């Protein structure tokens, strides 16, 4: 063998035979050493694997121990029924500390039973609703990044418990089949008849690459040992992808007929799922939302005022979700307090949708990172492309609203702004301008990225215009370029200064004047509405004054003008633009004026012919 090898090498390398011989010898030696080393590594590897196995057992035992310790901390009865929970002394202080850091009183949460019950806050009429015996099945998808462990588990438990077959409200709903007289049990087609769950196919936990250790092995161990088998899956994402893509990952994995999304700090009320499933069955293009109740971050109080009143979703052109009262026209259309109620937008975190329809209607814009924007994107898309967004009042889920994001977002990312710009570019047509007025820096910015594929989707689905949406879905929305007599900057004739909200965001902060911006900018973008309000998008100028006994406006003193949320009833929010160029407050008869000092508050005073009381509006029927 050796000789043949030498010959071969010699031929190939054209070297003298002796050198070749040495080369070959060296070669064999190297191979020998490598072989020995490999065998040694293999042996060591085996040892390591064996060690890993025992330490795996060790860590399971450690998780078990830790969980037992957690369970020992729980104070029986604390927060039961959804009442406010309180601790005292040092515990109270630690709780407040944790809330400062995490926006939720996590210290307290750790001491409230993970499966606490909630008082039934549903409208009484909900208990008399008869649902179909066979409903679509649901995949409940919970996404999280570094959410508090006990809060996540409480969310999971509430979903599990609300879908148990042995719940009294399900038992009542079993029915006797007409004709055969057989007693039928509830369930979805193809479900194992012995399954303890009705309609709940699975719960999918999507871990958006959390870094908190307790959300890893310990959470998995808890799920494996404490929660029903084969019901809960955990998807671990290898990278932090943000909430939009985390939900997409969960949706790709889901097998239920309906996808139901929740944030990971929720508590579902009893029987929350059936009303949603029934509605998606009756109307497959309905995207349905439970009433979102407030769970207080400081004491876990599940607060409900009046089960018959709830709000639906609105928006601002800045791209923020807002809550609005159910419009009168909608109260009439829906017929009853518990009937599905059209909502112009949704908050985004809690909703259910037919799974096939979710994909058909374009799922999500997967280029949205971090937090924000996906909720309005989906809202506008659903309405413009032929679906509906509906709040289903018999379904209620509590959500812990936090005052800040406890988790870090990618640095300098401004994902809300960028995502909203993507949304505006695809869905808002010319009204996108009203968003860019607030964010001129994002206009045509490369940060926003390419939206062609979403425009193609809009084309393919033959979706309607944003104008159609405003006119038909949300006619109450104040549109600064539509429902106005004049809009733009209000320039004072004497000083050349402009009316300006001075970036004072608080309720009832005074309106002021400031040097006019060359370009229209949000703080100087005011309107005189057709109904007679002097306003920006949400707030109306209002004058507080008193009358003398004689009915006169009290004194000649100048008064400040405050920006207060528009109530639509005019009264102290009513203004008219006189032919002279004066802006007169109708109730008091006083006129808007400035002292001509930049940054000072605007005031009202007796109307007199002074250029300090004369205003020119950028765009008005008079110009
Ligand atoms: C609201 C929505 C939220 C989402 C957001 C806009 C409700 C009640 N909440 O804000 O669902 O639509 O508006 O984007 O409607 N998360 C991740 N990865 C991240 C960041 C967050 O998985 O990078 C998770 C987070 O753990 C939580 C969920 O996404 O479970 C929503 O986040 P949030 O609770 O901070 O959002 P919220 O309620 O302020
Ligand atoms: Mn949330």
Q: How would you describe this protein?
A:
It is a single chain. The N and C termini lie far apart (104 Å). The protein folds into 3 domains: 2-53, no CATH class; 101-400, Spore Coat Polysaccharide Biosynthesis Protein SpsA, Chain A (Alpha-Beta Complex); 484-621, Trefoil (Trefoil (Acidic Fibroblast Growth Factor, subunit A)), CATH 2.80.10. With 623 residues, it is of the alpha+beta class. Strands 5-4-1-6-13 form a 5-stranded mixed beta sheet, with helices on both faces. Helix 1 crosses helix 2 (17-73) and helix 2 crosses helix 7 (217-226). The mean pLDDT is 91. Strand 19 and strand 20 form a beta hairpin. It is globular, with a radius of gyration of 32 Å. The structure holds uridine-diphosphate-N-acetylgalactosamine and manganese (II) ion. Manganese (II) ion binds at residues 263, 265, 349, 399. Manganese (II) ion is lined by residues 263, 265, 349, 399.
Quickly count the helices: 16
Q: Largest sheet at a glance? A: 5 strands, mixed
> What overall form do the CA principal axes indicate?
globular
List the domain count as a whole number. 3
Radius of gyration: 32 Å
Distance between the termini: 104 Å
Strand order of the largest sheet: 5-4-1-6-13
CATH superfamily of the largest domain: Spore Coat Polysaccharide Biosynthesis Protein SpsA, Chain A
* Ligand catalogue: uridine-diphosphate-N-acetylgalactosamine, manganese (II) ion
CATH topology type of the largest domain: Spore Coat Polysaccharide Biosynthesis Protein SpsA, Chain A
Average pLDDT taken over every residue: 91
- CATH class of the largest domain reads Alpha Beta
- Tell me the strand percentage band: 15-25%
Tell me which CATH architecture of the largest domain applies here.
Alpha-Beta Complex
Low-pLDDT regions: none
Helix content: 25-40%
Keywords: Disulfide bond, Golgi apparatus, Lectin, Membrane, Signal-anchor, Transmembrane, Transmembrane helix
Domain Ricin B lectin: 485-618
Protein name: Polypeptide N-acetylgalactosaminyltransferase 1 isoform X1
Main location: Golgi
